[in-house]
Structure formats: C-alpha cells, structure tokens
Specification:
Blueprint (H helix, E strand, L loop, with lengths): L2 E4 L2 E4 L9 H4 L4 H5 L6 E3 L5 E3 L8 E2 H16 L6 H20 L25
Parallel strand pairs: 2-5
Antiparallel strand pairs: 1-2, 3-4
Length: 128
C-alpha cells in the first residue's frame, strides 16, 4: 500500500485507474461507518453515504473516490425510477469526488482528454 502526503492529508492508492478491490475495503455495517470520521464520507447524513476511506482507517483512498464517482454516474444515467433526493445526492457526490480526486492527485481524475469520437482522415494513396 502506497501512502502519499498531499495538502496535509494522506492519500492511498493514488495510481489507481479503476475501482477494483473496493468491495473488500469499504465499510459495510452502520457500526463500521459510525466509527469512522465524517471526512471519510462525501454525504454526512445519519446514514453516511458514499464512503471514500477504507474500513478502519481515516486515509482517503483514490479507489473509494473512483467507486463513488462511478456509483453516482450510474444513478444519474437513468434517473426515471430514482427519488429526487437520491438524484440530488448523486450530483453532489459526483462533483465532490472529482474535486477531491483532482486535489489529491488521483490519476483517474487527472486524465487530460476524454475519449473523442473523431473520425480518422483516410488519405487516398493514389492522389498523395
């Protein structure tokens, strides 16, 4: 496990590019969530939604930020059957995860260009 010190906080797994392994590290039960500090959650309602720290630590985990970002995008992709409160929380979580990820230099959020669908120009070899 790599630890990086950034802006006075410690960040784990900065070079992660996907959310693999987060299901084993995330806090599951409400007791586990209550034992962690509020900075480990993007939304600090009594349920403490969207965890970004691994279970039992107060270290921000870039894999947790990626999982939070992907989960929020999944909720926002098809909002027809979702409650308005859930949609609002997902928008907040998506924006906060991007901001915190860039602040702590997580490689997933530092991608400079997104995939573009530009067509390649094919030149005819006969006309040079």
């Amino acid at each position: 496990m790599r630890l990086y010190s950034s802006f006075g906080n410690t960040v784990v797994h900065r070079d992660a590019t996907n959310a693999n392994g987060w299901s084993e590290r995330k806090p599951r039960t409400s007791k586990e969530r209550r034992s962690m500090s509020k900075k480990c959650f993007l939304i600090t309602t009594p349920k403490r939604n969207y965890p970004i720290c691994a279970n039992g630590t107060d270290l921000i985990d870039c894999v947790g930020l990626i999982a939070t970002h992907q989960r929020a995008n999944l909720i926002l992709r098809d909002p027809r059957k979702k409650r308005p409160e859930a949609i609002q929380k997902a928008k907040i979580a998506r924006d906060l995860s991007e901001h915190i990820g860039k602040k702590h230099m997580c490689s997933y959020f530092l991608r400079k260009t997104k995939r573009s669908s530009k067509k390649k120009v094919v030149r005819n070899s006969r006309f040079g």
